[in-house]
Amino acid sequence: MRQPPTADDLAFLRDRRVGHLATADATGRPAVVPICYALVEIEGEPTIVSALDEKPKRVDPRELARIRHIRARPAVTFLVDDYQEDWSRLAFVQLRGNARLLDVNAPGHAAAIAVLRAKYPQYARMAIETRPVIAIGSLTATRWRGESAGEERVEPRVDGVELASVVRGRRSVRAFRERPVPRHLIEQAIAAAGWAPSPHGRQPWRFAIVEAAERRAALAEAMAATWQAQLELDGQSAEVVQARLAGSRRRLQQAPVLIVPCLYLDDLDRYPDPDRQVAEATMAVQSLGAAIQNLLLSVYASGLDAGWMCAPLFCPEVVRAALNLAESLTPHALIAVGHAAKEPVRRPRLPLTDLIVDWQ
Fold first, then answer.
1. Which residues is 101 bridged to in the sheet?
2. In whole angstroms, what separates CA 216 from the centre of its chain?
3. What are phi and psi of 208, to 5 degrees?
4. Angle, nearest 10°, between helix axes 316-323 and 213-233?
5. Residue 167 is inside which H or E element, if any?
6. 82 lies in the same domain as 176
7. How high is the pLDDT of residue 73?
8. Residue 166's closest CA among 301, 339, 345, 344?
9. Residues 76 and 196 both lie in one domain
10. Burial 210-249 (b: 16+ CB within 10 A, else e)
11. Do residues 23 and 35 lie in contact, with contact meaning Cβ atoms separated by under 8 Å?
């Protein structure tokens, strides 16, 4: 049996920013539209209110389908839900009520405008006070919550779906199109790297940018001799060695931009015992990985792609000499950046149950 909304229902509604309004025309044909809304008390009862804002529309706002439907059939349904990747936290509140238009100067209109503007800063620049407001009263509610949805709510700082799309969308690209990369996007990615956590906040990393074609070619050639020797040491045949060297040269020369993350230890603490000094260096390496991840996510979010290669780890002196870097810089990676030429092969990820080894 449907009951008036509970205090928990009202708190749930206040915390969310978008709901879905279901109406029907005179013949009963339904329609659903997402709306911005607020909760306000009008004539002693909780009421959902929604403005007729100034977004470009082909018809007068007073002639919108939802308004025509409300005039013809005031009974409406309003749904607000939470979607979480953790399905135990799914929740919704569904309201049924009677909708009406509050004309300017009608009781409750000013209060509705005030609460809508307090919730949505965008309304401060719109003359919503000159238009009627949709008001839904005589509310009854049903709700559903997953087993964890009743836990104390932690308000997200960013949209979880968008964050997941960037984290999961990032891919390792090896082939790039011949398109230039805007300088400001590289600078933006390096700036993002600079916000990674680091030991004592010292930021023990620096980045070399290799963009000129001749520098990319020279770097590829400089590393080729070392890699050839290592491949031969592994017992690779001459044909395989040459094929892999050619592929490596092609990747480095084809990428419009190469970023070389370097470890920089000069600003770290110094300890009298070797164990703590080794730990200090390990923390720096860990933080370099965090900085590179920030960089990769920024690159992907900007519309570009990247590929993380670890070749400099095996010949840091060669890379340092080829790029004329200071002795205090130890090259650790190559990040190729550009526009992907093809969809890369994605490798499967371990399930969450395999990643968590202990929780008690």
1. 134
2. 31
3. -105, 135
4. 160
5. helix 160-169
6. no
7. 95
8. 301
9. no
10. bbeeebbeebbebbbeebbeebeeeeeeeeebeeebeebb
11. no
114 and 209 assigned to the same domain: no
Model confidence pLDDT, tens digit, residues 270-285: 999 999 999 999 999 9
CA 181 from centre of chain: 22
- What is the structure's pLDDT at 263? 97
Q: Report whether 134 contacts 66 (CB < 8 A).
A: yes
Contacts of residue 43, Cβ cutoff 8 Å, sequence gap at least 6 = 107, 108, 137
Question: Nearest Cα to 328, choosing from 279, 261, 276, 263?
Answer: 263
Residues whose CB falls within 8 Å of the CB of residue 343, separated by 6 or more in sequence, listed in order? none
Report residue 150's pLDDT band, with 50, 70 and 90 as the boundaries. low
Per the structure, the complete domain to which residue 33 belongs is given by 7-145
Whether 230 and 123 map to the same domain: the answer is: no
- Closest of 113, 118, 137 to residue 43, by C-alpha: 137
**How far is Cα 75 from Cα 22, in angstroms, rounded to an integer?**
9
Bridge partners (DSSP) of residue 338 are: 305
Of 301, 297, 269, 304, nearest to 283 by C-alpha is: 269
User: Considering 87, 115, 145, which residue would you say is the last residue of a domain?
Assistant: 145
Q: Which two tokens stand for residue 80?
A: 């607000």
Pairwise CA distance, residues 130 & 342, whole Å: 53
Place of tokens 């399905």: 87
Q: Phi, psi (5° rounding) for residue 91?
A: -160, 150
Rounded to the nearest 10 degrees, how much is the dihedral formed by the CA atoms of 281, 287, 289, 291? -140
Instruction: Say what the pTM is.
Output: 0.61
Residue 92: what are its φ and ψ, rounded to 5°?
A: -150, 155
Query: Distance (Å, rounded) from C-alpha 334 to C-alpha 257?
Result: 10
Q: At what angle do helices 274-301 and 160-169 cross, to 10 degrees?
A: 100
What phi and psi, each to the nearest 5 degrees, are found at residue 218? -65, -40
**The length of the chain, given as a count of residues:** 360
